Amino acid sequence: EFCCRDSTWQATVVELMLRADAVIMDVRGISAARRGCEFELQQLAQRLPPQRLVLVVDEQTDKALLQAAFGPRLSAVRLVEVRRSWQADRAFSALLEAVAA
């Protein structure tokens, strides 16, 4: 648990990314109107090998935004589509594969 302020949360997120064996991020529903995690996506794209990333997507996810953040490296990122909560096991399995990469 971290106590962050507006001036420190971004540095904290980046440091956690750099220390992680793999990162899973839920980007279901991200769109041009809902870009709240844009900073995190950009940092992941710049700082981590795509093989260590798992992005959880759904039919609402604007994949063009993911493409803009990652460029051609997006093809190496594990995208796991989850439509129902019981499908979350697939995301966990993908995370384990990313850790092993």
What does this protein structure show overall?
There is one protein chain. The chain is an alpha/beta fold and 101 residues long. It contains four helices and three strands, in the order αβαβαβα. The protein has helices spanning 9-19, 38-47, 63-70, 88-100; strands at residues 23-26, 53-57, 78-81. A three-stranded parallel sheet has the order 1-2-3, with helices on one face. Strand 1, helix 2 and strand 2 form a beta-alpha-beta unit. Helix 1 runs parallel beside helix 2. The longest helix has 13 residues, at 88-100. The model has no long low-confidence stretch (mean pLDDT 91).
The whole-number mean of residue pLDDT values reads: 91
The dominant shape is globular
Largest sheet: 3 strands, parallel
The low-pLDDT segments are none
Number of helical elements: 4
Radius of gyration: 13 Å
Distance between the termini: 27 Å
Instruction: Give helix and strand order, one letter per element, not per position.
Output: HEHEHEH
Number of strands: 3
SS strand fraction: 5-15%
Tell me roughly what share of residues is in helical segments. 40-55%
Widest sheet: strand ordering: 1-2-3
Helix and strand composition category: alpha/beta
Short account of what is shown:
With 101 residues, this protein is an alpha/beta fold. The protein has helices spanning 9-19, 38-47, 63-70, 88-100; strands at 23-26, 53-57, 78-81.
